[in-house]
Write a structure and sequence with these properties.
The chain is an alpha/beta fold and 303 residues long. The protein is 40% helix and 13% strand.
């Protein structure tokens, strides 16, 4: 499926890339936190940014902020709800109508829920959004990524994987939900996904790497519309232990564009450096089992 890319090649004040250097970069969860920070920073570099956001209103506000702070008009908003398999498929179809390739896919969106919640498809929200939503989105966009000269897939994971395990008997944690178990399971799933996908794409022009952003003061898992949520976010932003979203996004931005990581794949990065993974994340049989399970859950095994 090929279509002409709808990109304005006019340079703005902060855009130093020529039209041939400009990358098409898709960022999930781009309406706040590290996703927004990444959008602004990469737009400043002159790239065309597709801000994939679940909420249209918040997405539009983020788009205007990103344009204002980057000085670039090379940003596009597209709605994508990673908690809905149907919506992800609709998003992918719309993407192919607008673009003929994709240079960078930054799987940034993530959720943490103190209480158990479900996606539109009945998946527990953490594994549903953090892993299965990105699993389907990435799979549907592989054709576009392979049309690029040298594409990069970046998966935002977390060192929380170190206490994670895949709960095969109850992957959606219906019996005794725990926020730590849910989140750490999803982050371990991110690493299994990265390793298997990197292996599958080893003979292509597409690389796949994951990263730990560090402890970042973002709105993940917080209801920002409540007075408590607003106060908590404000407090976190001024806590020395936490990085700002801009600091947390530095490794993702590095992986998206830095020439030094060209050709590197299947690696786990922290502060722009490759980090060794603990043995639980290197279990190939577990990774392959999760891949097959994920195909079944998202319907890809039937296509």
């Amino acid at each position: 499926m090929t279509h002409s890319a709808n990109i304005n090649t006019t340079n703005t004040a902060n855009n130093t890339n020529t039209a041939t250097d400009r990358k098409i970069i898709l960022i999930t969860g781009a309406n706040s936190g590290m996703g927004l920070a990444s959008s602004i920073a990469l737009a400043k570099q002159g790239h065309h940014i597709i801000m994939a956001c679940r909420n249209l209103k918040r997405g539009q506000q983020a788009l205007e902020q990103a344009k204002r702070e980057s000085g670039s008009d090379q940003l596009t908003l597209m709605t994508c709800d990673l908690g809905s398999l149907e919506n992800i498929r609709e998003f992918a179809a719309e993407f192919y109508k607008r673009y003929d390739h994709l240079d960078v896919l930054l799987n940034n969106a993530g959720v943490v829920n103190p209480t158990r919640k479900e996606t539109a498809d009945g998946f527990e929200m953490s594994i549903g959004v953090n892993h299965l939503g990105h699993f389907l989105l990435t799979s549907l966009l592989l054709d576009a990524l392979q049309q690029a000269k040298a594409a990069r897939i970046i998966v935002v994971s977390s060192n929380a994987y170190k206490i994670g395990k895949i709960h095969w008997d109850d992957p959606y944690l219906q019996d005794g939900y725990n926020v730590v178990s849910a989140y750490s399971q999803s982050k371990l799933a991110n690493l299994y996904f990265t390793s298997v996908l990197a292996e599958r794409l080893k003979d292509t022009s597409v690389t796949v790497n994951s990263l730990h952003p560090g402890a970042v003061a973002t709105s993940i898992g917080v209801d920002r519309d409540t007075g408590f949520g607003k106060r908590l976010l404000s407090a976190l932003a001024h806590t020395p232990f936490f990085q700002t979203p801009e600091q947390g996004a530095e490794t993702a931005i590095f992986l998206a564009t830095d020439p030094s990581v060209a050709g590197q794949t299947g690696q786990y990065f922290y502060r722009k450096k490759v980090m060794p993974l603990q043995s639980r994340a290197l279990d190939r049989q577990q990774a392959l089992r999760l891949w097959a399970w994920s195909e079944r859950q998202t319907g890809l095994s039937q296509t």
